[in-house]
Amino acid sequence: MISVSDLRFSYPGGEFELDVPNLDVSTGEKVAVIGPSGSGKTTLLHLMAGIRLPQTGTVTTDGVEVTGLDDGARRDFRIRRIGMVFQEFELLEYLTVLDNILLPYRINGSLRLDGEVRSRAIELAGQVGLGDKTHRLSTRLSHGEKQRVAVCRALVAEPVLLLADEPTGNLDPNNTQRVLDILLEAADATGATLVTVTHDHDLLPKFDRSIDVTELVHRTEKPQINADSIAASQVSPQITRMNSDSHRTSQINDEQRDK
Ligand code: ADP
Ligand code: MG
């Protein structure tokens, strides 16, 4: 379902670099992505979804090389085939719970919004305990409720691939179990592949396997050192200080001369 090869990614101007020589996720597999904060879990999910593009390497998802598509085609591909639960939810504030869940149908003309879809959205809202809040604006929801809306939105179009970024991060133990079971059951029902970022190691037995992002190759680039600073570091600290003092003195002289 997902095949990553020779991937190298870094943020513009950033020090973080993620190298993935090879990573495969089979169709129908349920995978947990683990690793400490800042280790690149979200980045890896965004690369799998084609939200971000690597500097080199390829990502093939559901038989499509997403790294070879232009922006519009990638966006289309994502909406039709991938259900994504964003770490920050990405709900639209001016829409109700129901309209947020139905968002994939509003932004992609090839998905047809009919009564059946609407019923499915309402049913999903009920399953996550939001059945009585479908007409509430998303601004008037708690963090945990927003997260559950984000999970429903990822499931509504029955995607072949579910990418969930800490989908239970804001939930109490009961809702954590409930939301995770909904994701796992949805994956089973449709044969979808599920990749879930989680910090909760108690949940790992529910997955087929886990990928520890720290075991992928990371590089933290050192700041660029130019020839001058190498030369400066090779002389004694005293001389370096003297040099900078004399530089400052000559600067002051220049300023005074200008007056
Ligand atoms: P995680 O999800 O594991 O907490 P992320 O994938 O969000 O980690 O981030 C990995 C690294 O990339 C971090 O060091 C983070 O600071 C950096 N990073 C994340 N987003 C950006 C960005 N938009 N620009 C620059 N650096 C970023
Ligand atoms: Mg993250």
Write the layout of secondary structure elements.
Layout: E1 2-10, E2 16-25, E3 30-34, H1 41-49, E4 56-61, E5 64-65, H2 71-81, E6 82-85, H3 97-101, H4 103-107, H5 115-127, H6 143-156, E7 161-165, H7 173-190, E8 193-197, E9 209-212, E10 217-220, H8 227-234, H9 237-258
Parallel strand pairs: 3-8, 3-9, 6-7, 7-8
Antiparallel strand pairs: 1-2, 1-4, 2-10, 4-5
Helix pairs in contact: 5-6
Describe the structure.
The structure is a single chain. This protein has 259 residues and is an alpha/beta fold. The protein folds into two domains: 2-220, Rossmann fold; 227-258, no CATH class. The chain is built from nine helices and ten strands. The chain has helices spanning 41-49, 71-81, 97-101, 103-107, 115-127, 143-156, 173-190, 227-234, 237-258, and strands spanning 2-10, 16-25, 30-34, 56-61, 64-65, 82-85, 161-165, 193-197, 209-212, 217-220. The strands form two sheets. The chain has a five-stranded antiparallel sheet with strand order 5-4-1-2-10, with helices on one face. Helix 5 (115-127) packs antiparallel against helix 6. It is globular and about 50 Å long. The termini are far apart. Mean pLDDT is 86; it is low at 227-259. Bound molecules: adenosine-5'-diphosphate and magnesium ion (MG). The site of adenosine-5'-diphosphate has 11 residues, from helix 1. Adenosine-5'-diphosphate (ADP) binds at residues 11, 14, 16, 35, 37-43.
